[in-house]
Write a structure and sequence with these properties.
The chain has 263 residues and is an alpha/beta fold. The protein has eleven helices and eight strands. Strands 3-2-1-4-5-6-7-8 form an eight-stranded mixed sheet, sandwiched between helices. Helix 3 links the parallel strand 4 and strand 5. Helix 7 crosses helix 8. The chain is elongated, with a radius of gyration of 21 Å. The chain starts with 7 loop residues before the first strand and ends with a helix.
């Protein structure tokens, strides 16, 4: 059942992620108020750019804090009226948010990623039970939303899905360059690589609907013939440390999220 969107949402900070959230909300019919002292005009059609946090506090039912991590607490302390405050900053803990917001507010820690603007985001959040319905309502229709039961897992979410689009795009570029190296044009290689990545994921998702225990490696084996091209390609990936490098990337990004939380 579709949840009714909030009528009004405030977003403080209209960088890449704040803008992505604003655009997704506008598409749902939400009236969005944005505040960003670095901007003279709104980066998203339909977003009402305002000059003060007071307007955000007065007009918005929910307030998304989308500024740099070191600015989250100072910005939250500027508010005096209770509200639901949603921080999307990496490394800023739930307790830091709760201590900074006005008394009587609901605090939420969320880690979204950029694909949410195309309704394919991966979002995880941590909050008290009373705030959970508001989070689901805010991000409904933007992708997969997961509530974690331990706040410590938010750092892992940051390292996996928060930073994940950059890993995928790096892989995409490497595939395109591989085709280019073998004689295809860059545009041909990029088109083939994009469709291969997207098509594989759509196919695997379809298979998982029929068998939710299906493992990626089982499907990989379907296209890996003895002595064929795929096994030789996979061998090259593993000799290059592909799987280990991906795991290490997530581990290092997770560690950095923890470091940011310490200030």
């Amino acid at each position: 059942m579709q949840r009714n969107p909030f009528e009004t949402v405030g977003i403080v900070g209209l960088g890449k992620m704040g803008t992505a959230i604003a655009a997704a909300l506008v598409k749902k019919g939400t009236k969005v108020y944005g505040f960003d002292p670095n901007l003279k005009e709104s980066p998203v059609a339909g977003v009402n750019l305002v000059n003060t946090l007071e307007v955000i506090s007065k007009e918005a039912e929910v307030i998304v804090i989308a500024v740099k991590p070191n600015l989250v607490v100072p910005v939250l302390k500027e508010f005096s009226k209770p509200s639901t405050f949603v921080s999307i900053a990496a490394g800023i803990s739930f307790s830091q948010i709760t201590e900074a917001v006005p008394k009587g507010s609901q605090s939420v820690r969320v880690m979204p990623n950029l694909p949410l603007v195309s309704e394919r985001g991966a979002l995880a959040y941590f909050c008290e039970d009373t705030a959970a319905p508001n989070v689901e309502r805010l991000f409904y229709g933007m992708g997969t939303t997961i509530r974690v039961t331990k706040e410590s897992l938010m750092d892992a979410v940051t390292g996996l899905s928060g930073s994940g689009p950059a890993y995928v795009l790096t892989f995409l570029q490497a595939m395109a360059e591989g085709g280019l190296q073998e004689g295809l044009s860059y545009e041909e290689s990029l088109s083939l690589a994009m469709e291969t990545i997207e098509g594989t994921l759509v196919y695997f998702r379809t298979l998982r609907k029929e068998d939710n225990h299906l493992h990626p490696m089982e499907v990989r084996n379907w296209v890996t013939s003895p002595g064929g091209t795929t096994i030789h390609g996979l061998d090259a990936l593993e000799r290059g440390g592909f799987s280990t490098a991906v795991r290490d990337a997530i581990k290092r990004a997770t560690e950095r999220s923890k470091e940011l939380g310490k200030g």
